[in-house]
Amino acid sequence: MVNIEKFDSLVSKQESKWHQKAAQRIENKEWQANSTKIALCIISYIKKNKTSQVVLAKRLGVKPQALNRILQGKENLSLKTIERIECALGLSLISIQEPLTCDNRLNTISNKISKFFEIRVDYSIRYSSVIYSTVGGA
Amino acid sequence: MKIVPIFAPQLYSIEYSKDESLVWNKSNKKYFSIEEYGNLDELARLFDLWNNPLYLSNFFNDNYKDLRYFGNVSVELAVQKTIETAAKFEQRLNKASKKNIGKHFMPLNVYDTKLINLSGSKTKCSWLRLYAIKIDSNRFLITGGAIKLTETMPERDHTKDELTKLSKARDFLKESGVYDSDSFNDLIFELSI
User: Fold this and answer.
1) Is B90 in Cβ contact with A72 (below 8 Å)?
2) Pairing of strands B128-136, B188-192
3) ipTM of the complex model
4) What distance separates the 2 farthest-apart alpha carbons in chain A?
């Protein structure tokens, strides 16, 4: 037998913090995913180099508690902080894709075509237009 | 022991006091601090931990022998898979709130021998568990949860502790006059993804 009234009398009026935290996780999903990846790189570095959070924090010029928050994936890291981590670890953590110019775009198309047909392609505009018509405008 | 509503009147979660040794013990303090997690109920605490790369890395490193059962899974992959699964688990809980939550909980078999193997192409990572006491047909009280890497719960301290938490919660409810039943096994349930 269950006494529901007794159970209800035990329930706190305070709400769970889970709702707020779950909403934050959804809202911050993108940057937190990247923060997690960076955290894992640092954790892996610490393990492989048999160093410690305290030693690495000193090298980064931050307090151990601050590094701890980074390793928990809770920090929305600035580009400056990421750059400092990259220097300290001797690793590249992020890369920025260069914007495509007209020449770059032709190079990209030419490289893809040459890989497909296994032929060397001259990526000048004149030859690219010949190849373009050869592959049926694809 | 405090009972905190998640989706009243269907789902509740226990918030343990800071002197509860099952949660705030030496082996757990290695992973998380009472300052950060001391004011959280179990559902909030568990999902925080299951999204924490440092906690997960330390946990999987310490339980690497059990992780090897799942095939060629590195600690890093286990961490990423856990975070992905935790996100799906949270989404599922949110959806379940609007419907019958009871159908998502299964009776707990302490000696559960089903284990999902990660090495097969069609299998999923499903080592995340929530444990609950059933109050009535559609009312559950979450007592805790775990990353279960072994076939049975008594095999490891962290899952064995979850059985003790279930038992303690049952005793608390009985002493408070909520139950008069002695049939404990009928009351314990788990939720997994």
Assistant:
1) no
2) antiparallel
3) 0.85
4) 87
